[in-house]
Design a protein that fits this description.
globular, alpha/beta, 5-stranded parallel beta sheet
Amino acid sequence: MISILCYGDSNTYGYDPVTGKRFPPEVRWTGRLQKQLGDRFNVIEEGCNGRTTIYEHPIEAWKNGLLYLKPCLNTHKPVDVMILMLGSNDLKTVFRKSAKQIAYGASVLVETTRSFLRVKQGFEPKIILVSPPEIGEGIKSSPFRMSFSEAAIKKSKEFPPYYKAVAEKNGCIFFNAAEYIRPSEADSLHLMPDAHATLADEFEKIIRAEYKIYD
């Protein structure tokens, strides 16, 4: 069985922008991906609302993605594939980070994953590094407007080249989510079911191509 660890934030958790609750497994991109890939794969959901790359929120430091990374990897090893989609929460005003600095945070996670699992499981996983979807133009009137300024819109559009550079440097598979999906109009941040379906479809194509499974 091929193990796929999905390490991300609320858009991996499956936050519903309309109700504020969680989409059921059959709607979340992780659940869809599991169903579409079938029994030869084990898709592991590790999404946490508010998770950052490496930056600590002054009140919610536990949402720092680096702090939980090694325990998570050690819990789920062997990890064959890791889908890493973080960076959106780093755009919060409190962090004051540029797109380049956020991509650097992602690079730390990639490098930590590779070095840690090289020792703990004897091989490095394939890593799909995802440049997160853009922040929507309506963020200024969103329920999350107190956390994100309009500057986040521009910065989110600057992600792809920086994330691509990190992927190329570290031998990752690069995926630009902004080419395929947009955030909901409900909050300009989280994904609706159609976007979850699209992510599942695209990740399925990548994984099947990597393992040459086309049934």
